[in-house]
Amino acid sequence: HVDEEVTLCGWIQYLRQDLFVILRDFSGLVQILIPQDESKSELKNAFLGLTVESVIMVKGRVRRRPEGQENKKMSTGEIEVCAESMEVLNTCRKLPFEIKEFVKKSEALRMQYRYLDLRSPRMQYNLRLRSQMVMKMREYLCNLHGFVDVETPTLFKRTPGGAKEFVVPSGDPGKFYSLPQSPQQFKQLLMVAGIDRYFQLARCYRDEGSKPDRQPEFTQVDIEISFVDQAGVMSLIEGLVHYSWPEDKGQINVPFPSMTYEEAMRDYGVDKPDTRFGMKVTTDDCSRVCALCCQWKLNMGRWRKWMIIAAFALCVVQEVSVVPVRADGSLKSPLSRLLSDTAKQQLLQMAQANAGDLIFITAGPRENVRPLLGKLRLQCAELLESYGVPVRDPSVFHFLWVVDFPLFLPKEDNPEMLEAAHHPFTAPVPEDAHLLYTQPRKVRGQHYDLVLNGCEVGGGSIRIHSPPCPFFSVLLVIRDVIAFPKSFRGHDLMSHAPDFVSEEDLKPYHISVVWPSADIEGQQDNSM
Amino acid sequence: HVDEEVTLCGWIQYLRQDLFVILRDFSGLVQILIPQDESKSELKNAFLGLTVESVIMVKGRVRRRPEGQENKKMSTGEIEVCAESMEVLNTCRKLPFEIKEFVKKSEALRMQYRYLDLRSPRMQYNLRLRSQMVMKMREYLCNLHGFVDVETPTLFKRTPGGAKEFVVPSGDPGKFYSLPQSPQQFKQLLMVAGIDRYFQLARCYRDEGSKPDRQPEFTQVDIEISFVDQAGVMSLIEGLVHYSWPEDKGQINVPFPSMTYEEAMRDYGVDKPDTRFGMKVTTDDCSRVCALCCQWKLNMGRWRKWMIIAAFALCVVQEVSVVPVRADGSLKSPLSRLLSDTAKQQLLQMAQANAGDLIFITAGPRENVRPLLGKLRLQCAELLESYGVPVRDPSVFHFLWVVDFPLFLPKEDNPEMLEAAHHPFTAPVPEDAHLLYTQPRKVRGQHYDLVLNGCEVGGGSIRIHSPPCPFFSVLLVIRDVIAFPKSFRGHDLMSHAPDFVSEEDLKPYHISVVWPSADIEGQQDNSM
To answer: Could you tell me which chain B residue has the CA closest to the CA of A112?
Structure first.
């Protein structure tokens, strides 16, 4: 753009030596040269009167910077703009914090002045990246795959079961709307209605307080398809992620690897394994002993001792033994005296442990001890990272399908009984259907989760389409953290009529219904 | 596709003569040939056992229909599919109504069985058209014009003034969220935050009951831009409408014509004129007489008399005279005897009336009588159309900008006082700014409405950017029917902290806050 006349609007980032102004907008920074001639002293004085973060409009001419004055760290470092006129759109008084990446500010201050916090390059990048990714997803679904974007109502009826829902009082006494946990019921009805490929960037609500990965309202990519199978949905979603993946995050490969629920629980003690690092849970096939080998690998020097102490601390309330392996391969543990040499060798072999490693050993029912070791695995990774040992590369993205979930799991409060592992309309794997009434614990469901670096980012299932659910479709939901509503009521769902809510339902909100007093007032008027 | 093996899934539209099944999906209909050989009697019987609207999957081979059996009304009328196998995905029992365009059903029945109603080609077309138009709008804004799609929260604080808002009780006793009337405050803060081009397909809430053009929740294309002027926004929006306009609705031309508020009120008695037809309001420059000439044009034959009676009925409670013009040009009215021949000539000329026309005459302050005649103009159009006279072509789309709105209007309850015509942060037209304190009624605002066939489909304004509103931006909102929130509170808006709501605020909902009784129970325990 050298020699071009330009008009720039933006925020003042720096004022330098009465000579330069650095102007910022979302695309970056540019240097403005303040004129120094006597004839333009008015303009110069206007510039010198400016404060940082004021908003100005500058007209001027682009020129190459004098040789030796280029700034290679700046994408516009080879040019500058000679100001010819300037309008102050708004002046900025003192701000609660400077808009510079290196200025540390508390979370509370950032939230209080959210509109200033969003000026930072990092927040600008995040908001713009989200917008672009969502746009790409829409292109993929709408333009390339014939999906219909349908907006479903949010003032709805209560769904029994599932998460706690927000209620919204209607003007009708004693009647309330409910904000939906997900468009679950609407999208199933859309399948019945012949919208064979539905999607929505859907706002969902759960009245369950805020957690780092869960807010009262959140958005999910909500998909439902008729006439497909599990492989079809999985390849559609792989295509979706691949198509919308941001260029600056590196290439991702499709298809994603797949792991059964059984393998995930066996090797990682969790149904959403972080496969960026090893340290798998191992099991002795003959006994009920499970082990986790934390491979220090590096010579930890002076930190090693502290890390072992920290590892002991992790296990102190749990029935897990921590066994450091000495440089000569011997075990540094009271256990060492109790075990025969053969047993020690077996243990080292089972845990695939080497000199310098730390073995976590425990025994008990596998369904209990594996999840315990799975948690320890992640805690060890955090511990190592806190001492500067790289374990999980934050720049890589390991997508993983987890499939073949059990259709039923023992009830939490009564493990003798079974309940649907996900929702009660997940279809069984056809080959297992004959076991439904004889060995229900062995029946796998056509449910699949998408896991990224140990986070469940999506999940779905093939639904039962034989009566009483009169359709054949597939659900896939992608969001930061996922959960499924637990029930389904298939009638009169598209209407807006609010439901009656009992006093009992309102207790958590500390409100009660007041019957309108108009009639009583009317009687008073008559009596007077 | 002739001779290809195909798999089709869909709903059974018709069963014909034990020979054919017509299968429907969203893309249309196709004829399936039921095999008649003895060897395939099982398949034939399966077909014959089907009911209309059952869902099936058919595999078969496409073939050209025998000569003479083509159906030119059907887009697949030249082919049929010879069924080789068929799977019943679901059988349909008797439905409350048939899924055929010609079957009349009540609005209530359609709403009750919304998922069946949506199977009709018309509803499928509407849902799919909306999805496609919205997608095109996003492409235009995001991909072609650098807008950032930002999702703003819906669990928010109350905005004083404006429409009545829904409240949402939080778990915190006595504290409530409010569902926003529009993302107004968020988007203004996004401008402050440096998101210079924001848009959102925004869900908005107003607790004002349902009307045909207003529902408790609705969606608007919500836009805000920094560093632009009125002409810039108008051309952006013209581009948006042009880009996203559906092909099957014919070409629309940009730029759209523009009309000042004053012209609209003068000629049409309304700020959102339907410019598809004439019949303008006319004014005698010397007197306070205004007239509307309803040009019958056609020979109405036997209906003419009834229409005149209906026109009289329209005016009976209003101080409007209806004056039919006879074939010889004379006036058929008691007024005729009161007016001189010159006056009659002047009236005919003013109203541009011809033989056979109907003139509506009234007198009074123009700001009162013009809107009255404006309403009569639309009622006449309806009346003529109800008798089969084409007035407004439903297949044409007349977009129109209405500009130069007054910045202030007389208060409804106290016409001596002024209030902001739109919202209080609309900037004045710069040339009028000097009149702000001397002749405020003459000051025009930088506000613009987009009108389509007499409906306000969008509107926006240049905002005041000098303190106390520290930004420079532009609002444009497009939705079926528009209104603006009346106030703006510029602090602490991005946080989720619910606001305190008084008992007074809750009265319309017939609820009251109950203080938690846990403390009192604790005391009782102690005393026992």
So the answer is: B492
Which of A386, A415, A445 marks a domain boundary?
A386
Strand B28-33 and strand B79-90: the pairing is parallel
* Set of chain A residues whose Cβ sits within 8 Å of the Cβ of B11: 194
Does residue A158 lie within any of the structural domains? no
Structure tokens at A289: 């002993």
Other C-beta atoms closer than 10 Å to the C-beta of A266 total: 17
Domain that holds residue A306: 277-386
Q: A365-424: per-residue pLDDT in tens?
A: 888 889 989 998 998 888 888 878 888 999 999 999 999 999 988 888 888 888 888 877
Find the helix packing angle between A121-138 and B121-138, rounded to 10°.
150
Q: Has residue A147 got a pLDDT over 80? A: yes
pLDDT in tens, A349-358: 888 888 888 8
d(C-alpha B496, C-alpha B155), whole Å: 7
For residues A244 and A256, what is the distance between their CA atoms, to the nearest angstrom?
Answer: 15
Whether chain B has a CB inside 8 Å of the CB on A11: the answer is yes
Confidence of residue A32 (pLDDT cuts 50, 70, 90): very high
In eight-state DSSP terms, residue B158 is -
Banded pLDDT at A76 (limits 50, 70, 90): confident
Contact A26 B115 (CB under 8 A): no
Residue B515: Cβ within 10 Å count: 10
| CATH assignment of the domain containing A16 | 2.40.50.140
Q: Is A389 on the interface with B (CB under 8 A)?
A: no
The Cα–Cα gap between B167 and B154 comes to: 11
Q: What's the CATH number where B320 sits?
A: 3.30.1360.30
B226 found inside a domain: no
Tokens of residue B46, six digits: 């399966």
- Residue B406 class from Cβ within 10 Å (0-12 exposed, 13-18 middle, 19+ buried)? buried
Q: How many domains does chain A have?
A: 2
Q: What is the mean pLDDT of each run of 10 residues along chain B (528 residues)?
A: 89 88 89 91 91 91 88 85 91 82 82 87 91 96 96 85 82 83 88 90 86 80 89 94 94 95 95 94 80 67 67 72 82 80 85 84 86 89 84 93 93 84 84 87 92 91 62 36 24 33 61 42 29
Residue B79 covered by a domain: yes
| Contacts (Cβ under 8 Å, ≥6 apart) of A118 | A124, A127, B190, B193, B194, B195
Q: What is the mean pLDDT of chain A?
A: 81
Residue-level pLDDT at A482: 24
For the stretch A177-219, pLDDT in tens is: 899 988 888 888 888 888 989 999 999 998 887 776 678 888 9
Q: List residues bridging with B511 in a β-sheet.
A: A513
**Is the pLDDT reported for residue A81 higher than 60?**
yes
Whether A80 maps to a domain, the answer reads yes
Chain B, window 494-523: residues with a beta carbon less than 8 angstroms from a chain A beta carbon:
494-496, 506, 508-516
Strand partners, A149: A199
What one-character DSSP code corresponds to residue A155? S
Burial B71-88 (b: 16+ CB within 10 A, else e): eeeeebeeebbebeebeb
Residue found by looking up tokens 């700014």 in the block:
B433
* H or E stretch covering B310: helix B303-315
pLDDT at B132: 96
Q: Which of A386, A411, A438 is the last residue of a domain?
A: A386
| Buried b or exposed e, range B470-484, using 16+ CB within 10 angstroms | bbbbbbbbbbbebbb
Which of A26, A153, A194 is facing B124, going by the closest CB pair?
A: A194
Q: Residue A314: what pLDDT?
A: 72
Closest CA to A509 of A30, A193, A168: A168
Closest residue to B154, CB basis, from A142, A203, A513: A203
